[in-house]
Amino acid sequence: MDVLWDQGEPLTPREVHEAITTPRHPLAYTTVMTILVRLWDKGMLDREPRGRAYAYRPVTGRDEWAAERMRALLEQAADPSAALTHFVRAIDSREVAQLRRALDGRRRR
Prior knowledge:
The chain has helices spanning 2-7, 13-20, 29-41, 62-76, 80-90, 93-108; strands at 45-50, 53-58. The protein is mostly helical. It folds into 2 domains: 2-58, Winged helix-like DNA-binding domain superfamily/Winged helix DNA-binding domain (Arc Repressor Mutant, subunit A), CATH 1.10.10.10; 62-108.
């Protein structure tokens, strides 16, 4: 996902493979293709034909994806209120101020 977010344009499996494979960390092309197809099946990627392949791009931005994951994790907690309280206690004062601004903006709607 990071490669697709960083590139900012749709990439083929070959282009993703070239971007993430190194001599120290070899990865099979078919593995990359399988992961991209699975992410597409889950609705995390869009794809468009490019030659004989597909080019993939993220459906959401990195920040929106992180927010969706945070929400999903909160929903999975046995006690979402307690989990949220622990999260708020763990963030620094700058992040608390950002959270306050976001909540204030939500109240104004």
